[in-house]
Amino acid sequence: MAYAFDFASVLEYREVLVDGTLKTLALTAIGTVLGLAVGILGAVSRAWKLAPFDRLFAVYVEAIRNTPFLVQLFFIFFGLPSLGVQINEWQAAILAVVVNLGAYTTEIIRAGIEATPKGQIEAAQSLAMGRAQIFRHVVLPPALLKVWPAICSQVVIVMLGTSVCSQIAAEELTFAANFIQSRNFRAFETYFVVTAIYFLLAIAVRQVLIQAGQRLIARRTK
């Protein structure tokens, strides 16, 4: 018997899809801002060997990069409450995204910092600039500009990875898909639509980040 497609049964839940999409974007946005902050701190600590933080970040990076994101999420959501740390599903999801993205961007940004020509730093020192001023005005903007495409790709990877947050009942896009499919029993149509949404989100987020990098970071390097 030929299969009769019924995408209308999915579109009946368009408000659920929109809500899940917005929550996925919000989770990605918050995780990106905080994750980049962690990544910058980790990168400067490792690149400039600021003890003892360089060793702490080295252990942190290796631990996160060599374990699955889902296990990290479960550890935060199920493990921390066992230690008396009360955390809800959204707090756990945000923390997991920040921790994961922070580890990867630490290494990405560190590569950019280490690629900074020593002559630029020596020139800044000759102008009596302090270490913080050198980092803020001479080192960080060019470093970010060099590695920005890699950061954009990593953010998109993390955004797509947020789909596993549905496993702890965080109501993002995949959670919405599971909810819709449990109501209309149209698995093919439901996940086809959600796959298309993720595809469009990935393209849109990457383009927004690239444009933001060109406007904000490139302007500071001039």
TrEMBL record:
Its main location: membrane. It is a multi-pass membrane protein. InterPro entries: AA_ABC_transptr_permease_3TM, ArtM/GltK/GlnP/TcyL/YhdX-like, MetI-like, MetI-like_sf. Gene3D superfamilies: MetI-like. This is Amino acid ABC transporter membrane protein 1 (PAAT family). PANTHER family: ABC TRANSPORTER PERMEASE PROTEIN (PTHR30614:SF35), MEMBRANE COMPONENT OF AMINO ACID ABC TRANSPORTER (PTHR30614). Keywords: Cell membrane, Membrane, Transmembrane, Transmembrane helix, Transport. It comes from the Bacteria. GO terms for molecular function: transmembrane transporter activity. GO terms for biological process: amino acid transport. It is found in: Cell inner membrane; Cell membrane. Signal peptide: none annotated. The chain crosses the membrane at residues 25-44, 190-210. Residues 21-209 form the ABC transmembrane type-1 domain. Belongs to the binding-protein-dependent transport system permease family. HisMQ subfamily. GO terms for cellular component: ATP-binding cassette (ABC) transporter complex. Pfam families: BPD_transp_1. The keyword Secreted does not apply.
